[in-house]
Design a protein that fits this description.
The protein has 194 residues and is α/β, with parallel strands linked by helices. The chain has helices at residues 14-25, 41-48, 62-72, 88-97, 112-157, 161-175, 179-193, and strands at residues 6-10, 31-35, 52-57, 79-83, 101-104. It folds into two domains: 6-107, Rossmann fold (3-Layer(aba) Sandwich), CATH 3.40.50.2300; 133-193, Winged helix-like DNA-binding domain superfamily/Winged helix DNA-binding domain (Arc Repressor Mutant, subunit A), CATH 1.10.10.10. Helices cover 60% and strands 13% of the residues. The protein is elongated, with a radius of gyration of 25 Å.
Length: 194
């Protein structure tokens, strides 16, 4: 956590908020904003676009976690949630919602840096996995469309699978498009004609 970050802290207790700020200032020159309540959290997140959201709640409820995760968009930025007391259900709910760090036993300023470092690292790891999964799903969808287009070409032109693929590739190169795009256009045209 050496780079300058924009950090949004949600902490109702001013003394605890000041201790958190002191701990964060010791880690670098960060832009830090503190909210004393969760009421305006969504608009503050939209306005500030923080790199990291740090939330300290004594005993959260399911509604608190739902509201916080909707407002802080944990899938687009690391969110560290510190609680004094919890149960298994809340922990699982927070993790499933995308919270990067769910720390029980409250906020201790001396633990903030390693926890936030871990939250940021975990967030980037999960984000990379989500991106890889999305790319894999898209590749599979493209493969299905290409296979269907090859089948249409094989049937319409009485050519082999390799020749059908070569024709798709040649057309894509000529038109400056991806093979999947050409295949999708062919499948769409075929659907319209049938």
């Amino acid at each position: 956590m050496t780079a300058q970050l924009t950090i949004l802290i949600v902490e109702a207790d001013k003394t605890r908020a000041d201790a958190i700020i002191d701990s964060l200032v010791a880690t670098g020159d960060h832009h830090i904003r503190v909210l004393s309540e969760t009421t305006g959290l969504a608009s503050s997140v939209a306005e500030l676009t923080p790199d990291l959201v740090l939330v300290d709640l004594a005993k959260p409820s399911r509604q608190d976690i739902d509201a916080l995760t909707r407002a802080t968009e944990p899938l687009t930025r690391p969110v560290a949630l510190f609680v004094d007391h919890s149960d298994d259900g809340l922990t699982q709910l927070a993790i499933k919602a995308g919270v990067s760090a769910y720390v029980v036993d409250g906020m201790h300023p001396d633990r903030i840096k390693p926890i936030l470092d871990a939250a940021i690292t975990r967030f980037h790891m999960i984000s990379d996995m989500r991106s890889e999964l999305a790319n894999t799903k898209q590749a599979l969808q493209d493969r299905k469309i290409i296979d269907r287009a090859k089948g249409l070409l094989m049937q319409a032109r009485n050519i082999s699978e390799n020749e059908a693929y070569a024709l798709l590739r040649k057309t894509a190169m000529r038109d400056g498009k991806k093979i999947a795009g050409v295949a999708q256009a062919l499948v769409t045209a075929s659907d319209l004609l049938s």
